[in-house]
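EI: anyone free to look at a 507-residue chain?
SC: sure, send it
EI:
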Amino acid sequence: MAQTHGPTRRRFLTISGVGIAGAHLAGCGVGGGSAEARRVLEAAFSQPINDLDPHGPASVDEATLLACRLIYDTLVLSDGEEIQPNVAESWEQPDETTWIFHLRDDVRFHDGTPLTARDVRTSIERVRDAGTAQSALWQSVVDFEENDDHTLTVITEEPLGTMLTSLTVMYVLPADRMEEEGFFQAPVGSGPFQVESFTPASELSLTPTSEYWGERSSIDGVVLPYVPEISSQVTSLRTGDLHAMWPVPPDQLPELQGVDGITLETVPSYVYYFAWFNCGREPFTDPRVRRALRRAVDVDGIVENLFGDGAAVMTAPVPSAVFGHAAQEPYEYDPERARQELAEAGYPDGFTTSMMWFDATGPLARELAQSLISDWAEIGVVVEPQSIEKAEWIQRLNDLEWDMEMQVNTVTTGDADFALGRLYTSEANRLGYANEELDEILGEANRSSDQDRREELYAKACQILWDDAVGLFPAELISTYGLRDDVSGFVPAPSNQPDLRSVALSS
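SC: here you go
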């Protein structure tokens, strides 16, 4: 049983380079020698991996999900067009609120124990009850029946049309071990790689597991170092100390274009920038203030000047590549009207506030933040910049301890429910915003299996969020991957979370 959803598959744009490689950057610390001897893929993602818990506070974090895709398994996978079997060989839906999943009988965790229906049940219960960013996807699940070790029935309170899509990011952990103290420092999964070592915000080292049920990796391991300086990543890719890096920021593309031994592959992505207003804090409780701040920003000019061909101006609260995107009327850049709206809202002289972000959130994050702050200053809104560590940012974000915050977000499943249905309901309360009409629309879209109807509903949701100006949505990013020519089988992902099990290295 398969479900068609999301955008159609897109052709990758490949730019092959010719020329000469640059000089080696001494002391960059990425370390290519041993990796070449052991055929270990050295790959740098732009964000640090802080946490390996796929159900915890970092459950929608790009870096965490990238790692989890390699360590753990999901019941199903998405190929961009259809849902495909994975740990679940097949499934059926005898009625609107009942799903029966038939699991493979040859899946084992890295410690040799078999993966059973109990592990799947416990994992869903854990993410549902965690009170974290993914929990909203599973609130409709009310009961289970373990028919046998390899058959699980999931019962929902109401129809859940997004069940299969959400399962693509629901990672299965061993029921008897997931609550062990220190488990996520060296976690046990059933994916193609197991953890060799992990230093949060520094490096994750993985080795192929002999217990993996599927096609095993042909390489000896994967090392994912966090290299904070983009220039160091670029130099390491040029010298061969890195095999891959992503995303390559637009301002760094000239450093890699035309370089012998390097290929750039670009894919439309599910990744985008937004700057939220805390709608539960004054003065952002007033939509007039929020709209004024939208009109005060020259979004077109900022995106063009900072990103060039590396991004496009957003026309909705989700990127155009995502199922459920519906283009809206853009806010015209009009500082004078913005000042008038502030005055009407009771702030004729502007006000002082703050905005938090972490620099590694995405390409040119600091520059984008500074551009927004500069434009807001022109209408009398003085914004204190708060560039903080990622762990503190996550904590404050979840606790709603901020005035404005800026981040890169990823619609990992390619379906608007993962962003709109998870972030903007009154119950989720992710940004102090509540709208009963929107709740009803998103609820129906979540329950429905009719894709045409879901598109209609998400169009309404996009318009409400856009008109209410819950945030500023400046740029959807074009993800560019830099690859050495000795890498094959690497498939760029719109989510920035590529599946590396098929990667091979030539000698």
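EI: Confidence is low (pLDDT under 50) at residues 1-36.
SC: 👍
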